[in-house]
TrEMBL record:
The keyword Hydrolase does not apply. InterPro entries: Flag_assembly_chemotaxis_eff (IPR053716), Flagell_FliJ (IPR012823). It is found in: Cell membrane. Its main location: membrane. Keywords: Bacterial flagellum biogenesis, Bacterial flagellum protein export, Cell membrane, Chemotaxis, Membrane, Protein transport, Transport. It comes from Acetonema longum DSM 6540. GO terms for cellular component: bacterial-type flagellum; plasma membrane. Belongs to the FliJ family. One of its GO terms (biological process) is bacterial-type flagellum organization. It is a peripheral membrane protein. Pfam families: FliJ. This is Flagellar FliJ protein.
Amino acid sequence: MQKFQFRLETLLKYRRMQEEQAQVKFAQATQRLLAEQTVLSDLQAKLETNHALMRQRQQEASLTVEQFLIIQRYEELLKDRIVIQTREVQKAEIQRNQCLEILTGCMQKRKLVEKLKERRWSQYQSEILQEKQKYLDEIGVQTFVREETGW
């Protein structure tokens, strides 16, 4: 009997390689999303700090008009940057979701070929078993014939 050989082994290797590449891209997209979310959190924290500073200065009554205008402009700048950064986070989420869909598709394609390989392996095993059984049956018949005929 021939050694087991899966005709689609090259395709299986290719699908595994595609899946690995998709995993790398998904990991990169996830890292980008986390980085963008961190930037957004930092901006929101700065905005909160700015609010707290303005409240503190108002309570102390040490806030001049110039300081108020500077704090107000800084707050507007932060709000604009938060809007822009929110869009960046949304883009990163979309990119990550697309990478996840690609990865899921690659995994399904690889699993399909692996199932075909498993079926072919089972078929090969049963063929080997049948050949062994045939061989043993033949030996048994020859032994019986020898004993009966006296050869």
